[in-house]
Amino acid sequence: MDFSVLMSVYVKENPDYLRQSLDSMLNQTALPSQIVLVEDGPLTDELNQVIAEYKEKTTLIKSVPLKENVGLGKALNIGLQQCDFPLVARMDTDDIAMSTRFAEQLKAFQDDPELSICGCHELEFDGDVGNVTSKKTVPLTHEEIYEYAKRRNPFNHPTVMYKKQAVLDAGSYQHAMGFEDYYLWARMLLNGAKGRNLDKYLLYFRTGGNMFKRRGGWKYLKSAVAVKKKIHELGLSSYGDYLSSSMAHVAVSLMPNGLRSFVYKKFLRKN
């Protein structure tokens, strides 16, 4: 079954991480038919060198250079239009997919023709994959995903594979700083898209102190509450869902970074 991989890279990313991510794409038991790599604005010489190196290794990579940085949501929308196949797998350029990830997800789509989006659990690591610090699990069935989405993001974004048309039918990615994916999933679910998460860990997600730092502060909090409000206004969540999940975000976002890191690892992750 043919499918595209959709990735986006920007100037601040680490060339070594990009190399590891691309290696994991090219070492799958079910190889992608195409890797669409959006270059979100001018890149460093080191990042350009990695991209050139891999374009020499394989004809699968299709670069989509943008003249300026437009942000993840817009970059993914542009890249999605360049994906040639009905199925699209998302992948971040600093994470590492396990070798059977795509094969497992393709089987899920083959087994259920009504499926629109399929994700999985992820292992969070710091430094190298031998240093797994926590596990991020997600709800499994469509019914569990729908209920979970009323308060929290029901999919790990870099793990998903989805039907391109289902994403387009729901309006594709829209601006919502840090929450473009959650807002998209909510609209897809309300649009009748069927979701599933595999009960397997098929991706290593890179973390560290900076990840928890990015999930704090007024700017992040404002975006989180705004998206939750939009999801409530769409009719997915009740006012109680909106209020309680927003208050939880207020508490966590305004904590000192060290305490926020502890809360995420202790209460929002599995050790």
TrEMBL record:
InterPro entries: Glyco_trans_2-like, Glycosyltransf_2, Nucleotide-diphossugar_trans. It holds the Pfam family Glycos_transf_2. Belongs to the glycosyltransferase 2 family. Residues 4-166 form the Glycosyltransferase 2-like domain. This is Glycosyltransferase. GO terms for molecular function: glycosyltransferase activity. The keyword GTP-binding does not apply. The keyword NAD does not apply. It comes from the Bacteria. Keywords: Glycosyltransferase, Transferase. It comes from Fumia xinanensis.
